[in-house]
Design goal:
With 264 residues, the protein is an alpha+beta fold. It folds into two domains: 118 residues, Pnp Oxidase, Chain A, CATH 2.30.110; 138 residues, predicted glycosyltransferase like domains (Thrombin, subunit H). The mean pLDDT is 86.
């Protein structure tokens, strides 16, 4: 079973045309040297149906809140909702400009190449599933990119270690003692390393910090969102590996539920 399926050409064009007509929200992802840039936007229309599509130039990226610098020729990941499912594709930034709706003011825009394919992700892959009670999966994490290369003027961020609490292909929740709160801010880039299967190499991924909540037992619960996985073949392979982990945990949870029901 695959986490992603490629929409047929007609379904791809229909999904895009519908999203463009409705002005659906989109999430844009661009890779930078030190972290992934993630920003919210929306579809504006088709500059040339089947050839170019328009999205609003994002006002601010998540994390630093600054207006992102986006250059023509860059590869950009685009994600949007199609009903209850998430659709993703990669495009090329063709131009920047302005789009003027028939009843409004000009809107700064990005012209993107019409994608050759759109991939649709299974909805259930995004359901968070708890780690089985008989498993302990440590998670190392640090502020900054997953690729922590040292260099002039750069220092490795301190590494924190927590325990994986639950996971989906969209993100994870990590718990650690409240005294070790890393004091991150929403949108901060966070690199992580964890190995849920000792027979497979560890995952080293880029994430964004989403929240931190204290628990009654003096723990802190940290939410991390995976970023950039859908935008490259290598990332998509990692996404498939993550899905296999999630499916195993889901199957364990289903078995435990059946056992509990039989004991009643």
């Amino acid at each position: 079973m695959s986490v992603m399926s490629i929409l047929a050409a007609e379904a791809c064009d229909a999904a895009l045309e519908q999203a463009l007509a409705r002005g659906e929200p989109v999430v844009l992802s661009l890779e930078r040297s030190d972290a992934w840039l993630v920003a919210k936007s929306r579809f504006l229309g088709a500059a040339s149906p089947g050839h170019q599509l328009l999205v609003q130039y994002p006002d601010a990226s998540e994390g630093d809140g600054q207006r992102p610098e986006i250059q023509t020729g860059e590869n950009i990941g685009v994600a949007f909702r199609r009903g209850h499912k998430k659709c993703v594709f990669t495009a090329i930034v063709l131009a920047t400009g302005h789009y003027t709706p028939s009843d409004g003011e000009p809107i700064e825009s990005l012209a993107l190449s019409w994608p050759a394919e759109v991939q649709e992700l299974q909805r259930r892959a995004y359901y968070r599933v708890p780690v089985p009670g008989n498993r302990f999966v440590p998670v190392k994490f640090w502020e900054g990119s997953a690729n922590r290369q040292d260099g002039p003027g750069r220092r490795w961020a301190p590494t924190h270690t927590g325990q994986l609490a639950d996971i989906s292909v969209g993100g994870m929740r990590v718990v650690l003692p409240a005294a070790q709160n890393p004091r991150l801010h929403e949108g901060d880039a966070v690199g992580i390393e964890f190995q849920p299967d000792i027979n497979q190499p560890p995952f080293v991924l880029d994430t964004q910090f989403r929240y931190a909540n204290e628990t009654p037992d003096s723990q802190i619960s940290i939410g991390l969102q995976f970023v950039g996985l859908e935008t490259s073949p290598q990332g998509q392979e990692l996404l498939h590996r993550l899905f296999r982990v999630v499916r195993r945990y889901q199957q364990y949870e289903q078995r435990q539920t059946r056992i509990r029901k039989r004991r009643r």
